Amino acid sequence: MSELTSNDRKLLAALKRNGRASVTTLAHQIGVSRATVQTSMERLTNSGTIQRFTVDVDASNSGELVRAVMTIEVQGNLTSSIVKTLKSMPQIISLHSTNGAWDLVAQIETSSLPEFDALLRRTREIPGILNSETSILLNVAQ
């Protein structure tokens, strides 16, 4: 992909604030035409810069939503296959490589504790995962 333009950056920032905003609203917010926004969104999606559109749910309105962070140590030569497997799990909402003692950090959201338990079990059974540590997120610090 070519380098992002100033308008691309503005569009991405606006989408991060509200991924459900209409093209007209986005155009108004960043000061360009609707056609420019549509063309940019199509280009950014086709290039893989925009990988998906999603919804962030307020945990206080989501019932039993279980949120956690899992740090993962992997066997080096299996990293690519492990990342592919983890990214295919819908409960893993983001996955990051990192430095230090852990190789990956996964952000997890499940609808219940039994679903959370099943995800932990499946994750630990992935060949090449040497160790993991999971912390349930209890409350947003104020």
What does this structure look like?
The chain has 142 residues and is α+β, with helices and mostly antiparallel strands. The chain has two domains: 42 residues, Orthogonal Bundle (Arc Repressor Mutant, subunit A), CATH 1.10.10; 78 residues, Lrp/AsnC effector binding domain/regulation of amino acid metabolism (RAM) domain (Alpha-Beta Plaits, 2-Layer Sandwich). Helices cover 39% and strands 21% of the residues. The protein has five helices and four strands. A four-stranded antiparallel β-sheet has the order 2-3-1-4, with helices on one face. A hairpin with a 6-residue loop joins strand 2 and strand 3. It is globular.
Helical content class: 25-40%
What is the CATH topology of the largest domain? Alpha-Beta Plaits
Written as H for each helix and E for each strand, in order along the chain, the element string is HHHEHEEHE
- CATH class term of the largest domain: Alpha Beta
Q: Order the strands across the largest sheet as they lie in space.
A: 2-3-1-4
Main β-sheet description: 4 strands, antiparallel
**Over all CA atoms, what is the radius of gyration?**
18 Å
Shape descriptor: globular
Number of strands: 4
List the total number of helices.
Answer: 5
> Structural class, from helix and strand content?
alpha+beta
- In terms of DSSP E residues, the strand content is 15-25%
Rounded average pLDDT: 88
Instruction: State the CATH superfamily name of the largest domain.
Output: Lrp/AsnC effector binding domain/regulation of amino acid metabolism (RAM) domain
- N- and C-termini, Cα separation: 39 Å
- Report low-confidence residues grouped into runs of 5 or more: none
Number of domains: 2
